[in-house]
Amino acid sequence: MLPVVVINWDRFHLTRAELRMLLISAAFGIPIQFLLQFQGLAHTTVSHASLMVGAMPVLLAAAAAIFAGERLDRIGWLALFASSIGAACIVLGGSHGHVVRGEPSLVGDLMVFASLVVALAWILLSMKLMQTHSPPVVSAYTILSGTAMLAVVVLVPWLLNPVTHWNVQAPPLAHVSLTAWAALACGGLLCTSITTLLWNWAIHHVPASRAGVFLNIEPALGSLLGVKLLGEHLGPYAWLGGALILAAAITLTTRGHTPDPAIILE
């Protein structure tokens, strides 16, 4: 994201209210969302987490109805209800007792779902900023500001150990393998930076209905890769919940009037 910031350094000016909104958005989007999501992934499976992501299009529709004044008809609210039932099925399908690493759990699924709610707040705040500023620039400043906040959350308690005696362990930098570093670099470059820039550029050229359908590819592909590549298993509740979530998301994003080509998802 640094090249985007450097190129637009002299052209990006925020009011005090916009700066406050940017910092709140950054806090939601990076430290809070990622810490919740990664901690949840440590207590559940990739397949379960991917199916939970399928609730995001429906959460966006509900947020639009509540905060943006958009109206949903009976089928729309039925789809929201079905998606909620689906999320409940996935969560209830997790283990309620001792949490075993690599197995789905109630705690892990709930933390992943909480990270989706936080991500929704990030999206709504970012969209408001993108009404008056370039989406790539807003994304760059948000991610860099959030990264600085995350560094403070992770590193400051460790640096203050001699004073506070909190017994916080040092980050295990020396024990991270070269393969893990390469995976982290690819994740940051390909899964966060480039995909964010591509998404923000694409939503100015793709109608809302089509963009919503593309968003539904993620949970389906993620759960499939979790089963095929990582050897994970989905129980009957997870299959049922995933089917309800995907069906609800596809219903909300494909039905209705065909959008005018000039109306692009913002």
Helix and strand layout, with pairings?
Blueprint: H1 2-7, H2 16-41, H3 46-53, H4 56-67, H5 74-92, H6 106-129, H7 135-159, H8 161-164, H9 178-202, H10 208-215, H11 217-230, H12 236-254
How would you sum up this structure, described in words?
By secondary structure, the protein is mainly alpha-helical. It has one domain (2-254). It is 71% helix and 0% strand. The chain contains twelve helices and no strands. The longest helix is centred in the first third of the chain and has 26 residues, at 16-41. The chain starts with a helix and ends in a 12-residue tail after the last helix. The model is unreliable at 257-266 (pLDDT under 50).
Uncertain residue segments:
257-266
- In total, the number of domains comes to 1
Number of helices: 12
- Shape field: globular
- Specify the structural class: mainly alpha
Largest sheet: none
The succession of helices and strands, N to C, reads: HHHHHHHHHHHH
Mean pLDDT across all amino acids: 78
